[in-house]
Write the structure tokens for this entry.
Amino acid sequence: MTHAIAVAHPNIALAKYWGKREHGRNLPSVPSLSITLAGMTTTTRVELAAMDTLELNGVATVGRACERAVALLDLIWQEAGRERQHEGQGEGQGEGERPRLRIVSHNDFPTSAGLASSASAFAALAVAANAVLATGHSTERLSSLARRISASAGRSLYGGFVELPAGGDEAEPLFARPLAAVDHWPLRLVVAVTTETEKEVGSTEGMNATSRTSPLYAGWLAAAPDIFARIRAAVLARDLETVGLAVEESALTMHATALAAQPGILYWNGATVEVMHAVRRLRRQGLPAYFTIDAGPHVKVLTLASHAAAVTTEIAAIPGVLRTISAEPGEGARLIEASGTEPAEGARLIEPSGAEPGA
Ligand code: DP6
């Protein structure tokens, strides 16, 4: 196979991951639970090439984004070699030098602005590279490998409602697990976009500074598993009020921890705060709406599909809200094209709409 194209969607955590275990391998220190979202898509094309390169939204990219992409390719290849050895198989994938790949990735939503673009990026790359390198990893294994590069990416391998346990002492491989399918519950997340610029402090940097310097970090570690458990049970029971209140608790506790770092990490702008107040006002007026915020200034408002239009109208009118995106639960990462082979079982082929995918 010479090329493959995969798509993946970002996910928004209802129960936040913030902080890593100290012994490396990017193991989260708290369990998290997310919704994979349709309506925002990363499309990634991978092809055999003379050297590894990354083109992101039309721009040749070097530096950390490229290093992380190459690190994922290496993990995918090395893991195949380890599995062959373990199973006593002969020579094959994962041995010798890894074939070099050209990666062309495109997001149809803002990159690096708290919309979890790295999650969909590494999930799509894992699926496309697994096809071109013919490494044959399971979705579970790809989730664990993507999680090593960016923990939230491990969740975007799956659709619907997805959980990622905290890492234990021996917790390798640690992978995300599907909790409930896309059609489990007709929820919507209305994203209030409050800036089009890139965030100043990335999530990795922000959570590492928090765990190193925030006096509130121990409190977060103590509180997060219980918040997660309440959200998990209430998602399964489709109890929006319990989910929503705990979702706000998770986000506010995470941000309080980050605010108390030295120096304090402040992801919010004025519009972020206005939207939080507006959401609570809407609730007092009887609309089911609950907010969550990631490592950026956008606010994601959780509501029922039946109320999404009303919530969108209210949120879009708030000064400082540039635009809104209404997202529903979506599918996990999947292959949409692979040269010389039929797409993997379960993969949905999408019609190219306008621009060449990944161009
Ligand atoms: C606030 O998964 O981006 O979005 O593992 O260091 O790459 P790394 O971090 P990342 O962190 C996501 C943080 C969050 C909450 C969440 O998605 O759970």
